[in-house]
Design goal:
Four copies of one chain form a homotetramer. Chain A is an alpha/beta fold. Helix content of chain A is 44%, strand content 12%. Chain A contains eleven helices and seven strands. The first copy, chain A, has helices at residues 47-58, 70-84, 98-111, 135-162, 176-179, 185-204, 223-229, 234-240, 251-262, 280-285, 296-307, and strands at residues 38-42, 62-67, 88-92, 117-120, 167-172, 210-217, 273-276. A seven-stranded parallel beta sheet of chain A has the order 3-2-1-4-5-6-7, with helices on both faces. In chain A, helix 1 (47-58) runs parallel beside helix 2 (70-84). The longest helix of chain A is centred in the middle third of the chain and has 28 residues, at 135-162. Chain A starts with 37 loop residues before the first strand and ends in a 5-residue tail after the last helix. Chains in contact: A-B, A-C, A-D, B-C, B-D, C-D. At the B-C interface, helix 6, helix 9, strand 7 and helix 10 of B face helix 6, helix 9, strand 7 and helix 10 of C. Bound molecules: NADP nicotinamide-adenine-dinucleotide phosphate (NAP) (4 copies). One NADP nicotinamide-adenine-dinucleotide phosphate binds at residues 42-43, 45-49, 67-69, 72, 93-96, 121-125, 144, 148, 172, 174, 217, 219-220, 222, 224-225 of chain A.
């Protein structure tokens, strides 16, 4: 049995080469990297937002998490706080509503002060053929993802500028924001809008001490994402074969990247768009990548055929 | 006086090299290219929309133009129709309102049938430092550009699919949709969203016979754009120097490109994004392009300095 | 039997929706669009180069075609010339050799004068797992595609500048120049290099009256490309299913696009990159596009599952 | 005096807002992150290569640095080794020569074994109007940057595959690889080629346990880069004003990013392109970013003019 086919001990739902790409899930940055810093994470109660909040808290940040479900937020806040010993505040906020966003920032100012680190992570999404989508279906996603991110960013930006305070803004988008994708079209459009918003402000608001960066995650198993994007689980199976690293990403890996980009180690990074996808996008996009299915023997045959070709 | 500096007869507001890039404003496609076709153009009453409508009408299309100001539309419709002898219908429609969009398509179906050619051209925009923008200011642009385009596209897509009718969709975005830009941030975000929408549907709705393409115009003088983007005229002057072709674009040039992409000559073009900007974007984006200001004598000096450098 | 599955009369190797995207292969531009113009086309003896030469000649250009095989060039030149009544010159030239390129331009100057239109179309390519590639294998492709294009462009650029003559430069690259692709790696790298070359010069040489544009073709059946990229024909079959327009492109379609970009109708287009691929790239790249395989009944089931999801 | 104009203590050659973006130059990753790993860095004797080698060595890697000047390499090797206590090997190698590359890898195998971390950092570059460039001038850059990177990558890739060993490959390109840039055209073309090479192999060689990523640096002061790109220093002064973070980058900051991408913390990152430029690219590219020069009073006037505009 060749090395290429060995698989003992590989996690379920992964390809052989994932042995080479084992996840390192420990905290990466030096302890205290976010001491005396306040971090604001939308959608911080669940999934990737929770993972990022955990790492920032472990690194010393005082965190404020916000989304619609206060109960969920509070449970997460307590859980993280007891792990790290740092305060985590839960604030209810529907980002689609500018008034709610403003109230939330008021609360944050009272609780912890204006943030040094902002992560726009809240989102909604579901798979659907676009011809089955109503105007309301369209808005149910874009209002959260694009308008919500804009309202949070405008509100915080204005207050930070007024207070002459610098900050790092990070948005979590997706690998299909640049390429587009069928069947998740409102999400693709809104995330592309978020990317333009962030690139624009990286240029415009640098003079106020603000950085803006973007992470484009590929598939990372969270309940929120997978229950609405792959309800049957069929998609995941096929996906693994086109991910060069042979596995899904882990929330803790994303959290380390997010912490880095939000930290002073990255104080010269602004306007950057970091794809974090195990190689999935380049693998899907390259016209001849399907030839990975060709076996060595077939290659020999094909090479002979090519060599014997004469002229054009 | 060197050839490089001659300028006799050059249009006002252009650089010397524009002599090499004189606009050809005649209709390009063969007569009758759009015979028996219906074209729907949002914002078709003014500026670029009017120019595109004119050319499509000259090429035999029955056109339907739609925007908020019925009077403006009617004036344009009459003007074009008397020029070309083809019917041009004016339909009032605020694209931000899904009900208005649906009513408008009803009217179009009654007047001319479902369209073969759709051009999403309506937009709003103005320059503004982002920290001076309210949530309503943000929505005043994104609701037209992103939601408006989506509502038009969803409504027409559904009806075309139901009627098993193919169509060409074209969106007019802008060169800063990909790069982002400060001071026009809602426009940048919304246009980026439109691009993702179109790339997504190019992939998803090909099976229904639909193509989706994008033109990204650079600066083309229209009252609508320039009065809100360059009210003082100061910007235009500077801009010319960074446009490699040394002049602004003309509406008729854009109209020829739009007609081509909407025609059967382009039936294999889908998911394409065509920049139409006199070279402005590549000129702005390249890190060393400012060196165009270096004179030949200075180059000689610099080359000597470089040659004399030792080691790293 | 539904409209979606009808296929009577469809050309072999195409999907049902290709009925909506029938190729229009007649010449598009007005007669005489290239009268009194000289066009230089590398690789003009075969495939796409031959198709472009044919259309430019039909539109009145005096053409000069150049590549290694003089006999092939001469046969093509005679064939086109007798069709169009315009002179077509055949000049032997291996673009990898700067001396040969210079000699070729000398010959062209003597025969027809310096060109108004330049199309860098010559290329080499074959599929191969990269670990089977020697340094010589690497260079066999990159020397033609990247260095060859650069040598032709530098030689012509210098002479045109010296003669104060404007020109349109067009490069034929490929859809995987931006994304990269396994199994055609030297081609991907070299074509990406060509794109950067052209975008750079669009910015730098505008002041000399030169435009630079790029066409990225998707799969168009030519002997040269397909015999070395799909020797068994297996690839083509699979490819059709991911092309939204359901068919391959035709040389005559590409030729119309190339003629447009090289004409005065496009005198404001510079630094543009026009994808011409039936939608293939956006279709491959979008993460959820595989869901096109889901049937309407399966969608109903999936929607029910998604709707019943609670929380994140 | 407003906060916006304060500058006390700011490093020379920086803008006011750089106070918000002070560089953090300490080592970021946990100690021992590269224990028992071998790292190979081309151009590791000077500039950014030296900075990356230093950090990897501090983190426990055994480093092998290679370039043309053995003496320079040896001096750097000794210097780093005495700082970190880890072995640093100096191997002479001209990357343009496949035979030299193969010999170098032989030596590395004997000294340290095959590498776990490969950084393709060697490059050449100088500013020059392209019409002053000979074919040899073109090749003097592209042979190092594109062919050199390819030869190193092919040689190491083949041996690693044969030995069933995974590895992280990192290439240092530049922000103008995607946009192109005049006056550094061979560099732009070759770096774009390197990016396509890496994206292609990220897709193709994942199955062998290899990751491929790219850093695109903006301006970081090193003798090698600045003496050949900005011999007079005039360029640097202008550049600062278009960098949103108001300062140049530091080698140690780049080194932390490079170490992260090469580490197991990034084992799910492949095919990524990370811009590291203080926001320069988004700032240059956005069409309206020049409006940063408009003062608050001028904005008031412009807003009044825009508000008074009627119609389109
Ligand atoms: N997991 C992946 O594979 C993946 C891939 C690409 C991108 N992403 C992105 O990663 C981010 C996190 O996703 P996830 O996978 O962690 O899924 P998730 O757990 O469902 O996270 C989404 C969060 O957004 C919050 N949210 C939704 N609507 C909101 C609203 N109107 N106002 C405020 N908060 C709202 C939700 O909280 P409430 O319900 O309490 O409001 C929830 O905490 C999202 O931006 C997603 O697009 C994820
Ligand atoms: N000119 C340029 O330099 C330039 C550059 C890049 C992109 N563009 C794009 O080109 C397109 C045309 O611009 P233009 O220069 O021709 O300017 P314009 O004359 O102002 O065109 C905008 C059109 O949109 C219509 N519109 C605005 N809001 C609408 C709404 N809510 N519902 C329906 N229609 C609406 C307007 O008509 P009503 O007022 O009657 O509604 C108007 O006809 C726009 O998409 C613009 O972003 C232009
Ligand atoms: N067909 C497609 O699907 C497709 C897709 C994407 C891109 N393209 C691009 O389209 C262009 C044309 O390709 P094609 O399909 O028409 O294939 P083709 O017929 O093989 O064309 C290649 C041409 O390049 C010439 N050539 C090769 N090496 C040369 C050298 N060293 N010096 C001068 N000329 C040389 C060949 O002529 P000699 O042998 O006489 O030298 C030949 O005429 C190429 O750039 C290709 O990459 C094609
Ligand atoms: N500094 C910046 O602002 C900046 C910005 C963007 C990108 N970069 C990139 O960063 C990398 C490092 O640049 P740097 O600023 O550190 O400049 P540098 O000190 O000049 O580094 C270039 C290195 O490449 C080596 N090299 C050159 N030709 C070689 C050959 N034929 N074979 C082997 N090695 C060769 C040189 O060593 P020998 O002379 O001993 O051969 C030198 O160590 C380069 O890829 C550069 O393009 C730098």
């Amino acid at each position: 049995q060749s090395w290429f086919h060995r698989s003992a001990g590989r996690p379920f739902g992964s390809a052989p080469q994932s042995d080479f790409f084992r996840p390192e899930e420990g905290v990466m940055l030096p302890a205290g990297s976010f001491s005396n810093k306040v971090a604001f994470i939308t959608g911080g109660g669940t999934g990737l937002g929770k993972a990022m909040t955990t790492v920032l808290s472990q690194l010393g940040a005082q965190c404020v998490i916000a989304s619609r479900k206060l109960e969920v937020l509070q449970k997460t806040a307590t859980e993280i706080s007891s792990l790290t010993g740092k305060e985590v505040h839960a604030v209810q906020c529907d980002v689609r509503d500018p008034k709610a966003v403003s109230d939330c920032v008021n609360q944050m100012e009272a609780l912890a002060g204006l943030p040094d680190v902002i992560i726009n992570n809240a989102a909604g999404n579901f798979v659907c053929p676009t011809e089955r989508l109503s105007p309301n279906g369209w808005k149910s996603i874009t209002d959260i993802v694009l308008n919500g991110t804009a309202f949070v960013t405008l509100e915080l930006g204005k207050r930070l500028i007024q207070n002459q305070k610098g900050a790092s803004f990070l948005a979590i988008t997706t690998i299909y924001a640049e390429t587009g994708s069928g069947f998740v079209v409102p999400s693709a459009s809104a995330k592309a809008g978020v990317e333009a918003l962030y690139k624009s402000l990286a240029a415009e608001w640098g003079r106020y001490g603000h950085r803006f960066n973007i992470i484009q995650p590929g598939p990372i198993k969270t309940k929120g994402a997978f229950s609405r994007l792959d309800p049957t689980g069929a998609f995941e199976k096929n996906m693994i074969h086109r991910i060069p690293t042979g596995r899904l990403g882990r929330p803790a890996e994303l959290a380390n990247l997010a912490a880095y980009l939000s930290s002073d180690y990255a104080s010269w990074i602004s306007g950057a768009v970091v794809r974090f996808d195990g190689g999935e996008l380049v693998s899907m996009g390259g016209e001849f990548n399907e030839l990975r299915k060709v076996t060595p023997d077939q290659w020999k045959m094909m090479e002979a055929m090519i060599r014997s070709t004469k002229g054009s």
